[in-house]
Amino acid sequence: MTKRQLLRFRRIVVSLIALCGVGVYIYANPASYQEDKSVFDASQISLKDAQDRANSYLASDVLETLAVKEKNTNEKYYRKLFYDNWGRTSSGCTTREAILARDLTDTVMKDCKVQSGTLADPYTGKTINFVRGQDTSSAVQIDHVVALSNAWATGAYQLSKDERYDISQDPLNLLAVDGPANQQKSDQDASDWLPSNQGFQCQYVARQISVKYKYHLWVTPREKAAMKNILSTCPEEKTVGLEDLITQAQ
Question: I want to staple 192 with a disulfide (CB 3.0 to 4.6 A). Which of 167, 188, 209, 226 is the partner?
């Protein structure tokens, strides 16, 4: 073996020894070579995984993953594009009654219908005594947190009929609230309307972000700016857990 060949051989041996050393270290210390998963990056995980993990991330981080563009007003909106009637949960009750049962306390049920209960209204901070009746039921209404017409204009028009139906029935997007406040909100987004109960504004915005993330909806520039402004007052606010809310309403 020539001197040059011997030198080359020694370099190969040294390289192999070094590689073996790294392998042994990684084997003995697997945590040292794990990818950092602490940063929210929706492109690196599947939709289901992202939904399951969404409650681990700050709402402000998730907001940054949403597309930003103006509303599409070319596609005409009809409520029936989402649903005709309330669906039914696994209990056999309608989604509306399931949300009332979830959000009210001291409820009295009869034939799968909430007859009475007490609502600590998140939008106004008021306590509302709900009594079912032609002249009283409207005191508490079920709000779509992301209004359906807003959802339509920010991407839902591209979704399938089944996906639009899911938005209309998803407990994540439904809250029992003060009737007049719900009427006042109408189909406005966070840039034009926020709950008068300031203590709930962060949760409200985080919930809207969670819905928009789940259904691939976008936000307008003004809407995003308003959301960021609210979240700046509560930087630790996290997205709303998805699976838990769905389970609670069933």
Answer: 188
